[in-house]
Specification:
Layout lengths: L1 H28 L1 E11 L5 E12 L7 E3 L8 E4 L9 E9 L1 E10 L4 E3 L7 E4 L2 H4 L2 E9 L4 E9 H4 E3 L5 E3 L3 E5 L3 E14 L2 E6 L4 E6 L4 E6 L5 E8 L1 E7 L8 E2 L3 E3 L4 E3 L3 E3 L5
Parallel strand pairs: 1-10, 8-12, 14-22, 14-23
Antiparallel strand pairs: 1-5, 2-3, 2-4, 2-6, 2-7, 6-9, 7-8, 10-13, 11-12, 14-15, 14-18, 16-17, 16-19, 19-20, 19-21
Length: 280
């Protein structure tokens, strides 16, 4: 009798364990990992501070289908967009979600966004229209295969996102370009400039030089700034050929590169860019 009881308990325990393993297997078999990485295409501002109060995804396309990434305590996310250059990025979300079609994501913005402009000591209010507070929707339309990790690069174009009104106020109307990291490549490089010291040319790294990206047809794609060492990194570019431009850089001639080829999954390190002063 005792042996039968022990046998029954053992069988029961095995059934329970198999049940747990089956649930875990089902869960893993129906989910994918999604990461959202924020980078910046900066504008002519010293600081652009934004307040993100929620990030949501939608697999259904219906308004009732929005689900938050993370937990309420993960928000708000406050970030100065101008710091996201030269390879710096901010991981906004990293979560396991149901596999299948990822239709959209949206960023819900709060109040308290601010702007600092060169020559002004105090911060300025960066107003957020009510439409943006309800959420900026970004179309993803990506099929998430179960068991895989997907990293999406959100390239926030600050120059186009900050709009001055007729009354001299500033509004935040985000312009964000999205691309999957698995479907994109990057360009990195360094920018230096020529200086004259006692009539001799001296070269030094250039900070805050705006490096613009254009298609071969002359269509603007994005831009980024250089850090204190003159380095830059442009991420989330679709495979293809591009040209880089640096224009209206004070005291220097405009620059335009030869064709640069971007390959999926690689970083193309280009030769150093040297800006020259005009000859008289």
């Amino acid at each position: 009798m005792m042996l039968k009881k022990i046998y029954f308990i053992a069988i029961t325990a095995m059934v329970v364990m198999l049940g747990f393993q089956s649930c875990e297997s089902d869960e893993e078999g129906n989910t994918a990992r999604v990461q959202l990485k924020l980078v910046d295409a900066p504008g002519d501002y010293l600081e652009v501070n934004v307040n993100i109060v929620d990030i949501q995804y939608n697999n259904s396309g219906n308004e009732a289908g929005w689900v938050s990434f993370g937990k309420p305590e993960d928000y708000p996310i406050n970030v100065d967009l101008t710091t996201l250059i030269a390879g710096n990025s901010l991981l906004l979300a990293d979560q396991i979600i149901p596999s299948g079609m990822l239709k959209q994501i949206r960023l819900v913005l709060g109040d308290g966004n601010t702007l600092k402009i060169e020559g002004q000591e105090s911060m300025m209010a960066l107003n957020t229209p009510s439409a943006m507070q309800s959420g900026l929707k970004l179309n993803m339309n990506t099929t998430l295969d179960a068991g895989f990790t997907y990293t999406f690069i959100l390239d926030w174009d600050v120059q186009k996102s900050v709009v001055m009104t007729g009354s001299g106020m500033y509004n935040l109307k985000p312009v964000i370009r999205v691309n999957a990291e698995v479907n994109s490549g990057s360009i990195e490089g360094n920018v230096s400039g020529e200086f004259l010291v006692n009539g001799l040319s001296v070269f030094s790294d250039l900070e805050n030089a705006m490096v613009q990206v254009y298609t071969t047809g002359g269509v603007y794609v994005t831009e980024t700034g250089t850090n204190a060492e003159g380095d830059f990194l442009i991420q989330g570019l679709a495979a293809g050929d591009y040209k880089l431009k640096i224009v209206n850089q004070e005291a220097y001639n405009d620059y335009e590169s030869a064709l640069i080829t971007v390959t999926v999954g690689t970083v193309n390190t280009i030769a150093p860019i040297v800006l020259m002063i005009p000859t008289i």
